[in-house]
Protein CsiD
Amino acid sequence: MCAMEIKKESLPTFTGEGYRIQAHSDHEHLYNIELEEHVIDRFLEEVQDITDEKLEYIPYQRLMVAHTLLELLDENFGKTIRHILNDRASGGFTIGLRNRTTDAQDYVKFSTALSHLAGIPNFDAMSKKYYARFSVKHTDDSDSYLRQAYRRFTLHTDGTYVDEPTDWLLMMKMEEENAVGGSSRLLHLDEWEDFDYYYNHPLASYPFTYKAPASKNVSEDVQRKTFYEWNNKPCICFIDQFVYPETIKQAQYLKELSHSMEESSGLIELELPIGDLVMLNNRFWLHGRDGFEKNPDLHRELLRQRGRFVQ
Ligand SMILES: [Fe+2]
């Protein structure tokens, strides 16, 4: 399989009651989902009594929030979300709250509705909840690049060091001040020119050891192959910070693979407005973040959820 052989067809448009789903104006593999404003207003009204705490303590409430959104749309909406996330031609979309609210609790509820239309989020050991909110700011003393503003956070997949499937991920921008740079960097596996070389390399299916840093609260190591098949298509599992090669040859393979992806012309930079989220298939999309320009007042808060498909 070669990136050049992929037949490029523009993504179809889906319209339904209260929403329109069409190709993202800037990125050919991504969709943008636009909910009508009255749908957003009505959704927020109907879930106004559901607190973050209720969502965290009572798992069925999370699915009920998804149900509330679905009731305001048509029955195809949930199916279309899952179809897009599974569809190799896309595998991702953006959607937002269109400035109808700036309340952080509303962001949690909205992201919960979307994640539970896709499937079920995994327990996030860093936050000890089904979602995690975290800040990127001028100073940071953490033990990974997640919260370090001025470094490029290189392309990777999530869930590499946990022993459970991580089919999709959701990232939502909750707050941002004095931020220049720091855009999301995304790469669809089929857009990577050097894919063939690394996929056919003898180390492509070598089970590398992945270990999490202390802040992730995950103590067991796992073995992961860099490339594997899913739905009869090649997929990738990789993050430079948590993979432990044992030989110089292995280290070279990983280093060159990471470098090649960073240099890929297929890489896209996504600007996410506050109140918008992106959902991606975590098996054939890689994600990362560019460094920010230095600013002592820099502040960004993000929400993330990662999970598996159920239906
Ligand atoms: Fe990540």
Q: What stands out?
A: Helices lie at 37-46, 52-57, 59-72, 76-86, 104-118, 195-199, 248-262.
